[in-house]
Sequence to fold (278 residues):
Amino acid sequence: MTPKPQPVERLEKRLARVARERGLDQERLRRWVSFLALCGVLERAVEERILGSYFLKGGVALELRFAEEARATKDLDLGLEGPRGSRADLFRRALELGFDAFTFRLKPQQSRVLEQADTVRVSVAIAYRTRAWQTIEIDLGPAGAHTVDFVEPRVEGLAELGLLVPSPVRCLGLAEQVAQKMHACTSPRSAGRSRDVLDILLVEMLEGLDYVRVSEAAARVFAARGTHQFPSEFAMPAEWRPEVEALAAQLGLPDRRAALIEERFGAILRRIAKAVLR
Fold:
C-alpha cells in the first residue's frame, strides 16, 4: 500500500521521534530521506525516458548499502549520462517530475564546473508539500560505469516515517567503487583522500572484498585514467594519520592506529597487485 503524503509538521515531529527512538542523528536521517527522494525522482526520469540511466557513487552509495555503519556524508555524487555541459540541464528536467510530495529546484547561479573531475557541482533545494526540507550539494559526474548494482537501502527509520521509499536504488558496482577509491587515494593528486582508505577497509569488514572482481575493475580504472600504475606498496602520508585514527574510532574499525591501518591497507593492495600487474 502506498503511503499518503502527510502534513509537514507531522513529518518533522515523526522525524525527531524516530531519530530519538532509533538512536540516530536527526540530520543524518533527514539526509537519508533527501537522498532517497532524489533516487525516486531519478527513477521516474528513467521511466519517462528523460534519463537513460544514472547511478549513485561516493559516500552516499556506501551509506545506502551499510546505513550508520558507513561514514556520514552530506553531499551526493551521481553518475549521469551526457557531456559535462548538458548534464545540469538534463538533471533539471528530471527534477521537474517530482517524487511523492517532494519537489526539487536547482538553485540558480550555484553551478560550478570541476574541470579535472569532468564534473558539474549543483545545489538542489528540496521541498516537502511546498515547505523547505533541505538543500543538498550534488556532483554530476560522467556515467562511464562498467557495472551498476541494484541495492536495497539498508538505512533505518524510513518505514516509521510513512514515506514512499524507492527500492532498489542504482549504485556504482561495489568492486568498481573500491577500485576507483584505490586509484584516488594512491594517485599523485591524493591530497584529501584519506577517507577512501577507511571506506575500503569498511567494505572489507562488512561485505568482504571480491578480490577477483576488484582486480578486474582496478585494471580497467587504472588503465583508463592513466595517471599512475597500480601500487604494490602503500605509505600513508603523515598528515593523514590524525584524521584516519579519529574516523576509524568513529566507525568502530578493529584497527584504529594509523600504523595498523596502513599495514592492513597495504596488504589489500599487494594482494590485488599480484593480479593487476601480472
